[in-house]
Amino acid sequence: MRVGVLAIQGAFIEHERAFERAGHIVSEIRQSKDLEASLDMLVFPGGESTVQRKLLHDLHMTEPIWQRIDAGIGVYATCAGLILLANEVDGKPNELGRLSVLVQRNAYGRQLGSFQIHGSILGHQDIVMTFIRAPRILSAGQNVEILSTFDGYPTAVHQGNITAFAYHPELNGEIYL
Ligand code: GLN
């Protein structure tokens, strides 16, 4: 696939490497004209969702990106990326939401409280899942497929053209689509 990784803030390098290792052709999305490339998938890396939201706005990238999402491009979102796409964040509606999930930011602890678990997803067993100031998916709509769970909460979800993770698959070299 031709994969465009949003490269304005956060863990974009790790995502670029992980998708390259998986055999995909990767380009960086740093300004709206980068979205004119022929792409199969957009990647929203982890980082700081408030900063990412502001930068996307300031760089006039929000509208073209969301247009491509609505036109059906594949979306792979990690952590802060999940937050950008969630319908509700910390009890407030998110007008950019495209995923029927309610999330609570930083619910799995602070940076120093980062942790790993072993879980299963899409038939892959014993996968390392790294949580870094991760959002908790408090609830998901009926149209959302839950791909993995931890402690009774969804940790990866799929809806339409979007797959999103509370944890960081890219850190362990795992890209499961
Ligand atoms: N806590 C961050 C946020 O709220 C997300 C953390 C991450 O992407 N690793 O945006």
* Class per helix and strand makeup: alpha/beta
Count of discrete structural domains = 1
Query: What's the number of extended β-strand segments?
Result: 13
From the spread of the alpha carbons, the general shape counts as globular
CATH architecture classification:
3-Layer(aba) Sandwich
CATH topology: Rossmann fold
What is the average of the pLDDT values?
A: 96
Features:
globular, 177 residues, binds glutamine, single chain, alpha/beta, 7-stranded mixed β-sheet, Rossmann fold
Model description:
With about 180 residues, the protein is of the alpha/beta class. It has one domain: 3-Layer(aba) Sandwich (Rossmann fold), CATH 3.40.50.880. Helices cover about 20% and strands about 40% of the residues. The protein has 4 helices and 13 strands. It has a 7-stranded mixed beta sheet. A hairpin with a 2-residue loop joins β8 and β9. The protein is globular and about 40 Å long. The relative contact order is 0.17. The model has no long low-confidence stretch (mean pLDDT about 95). Bound molecules: glutamine.
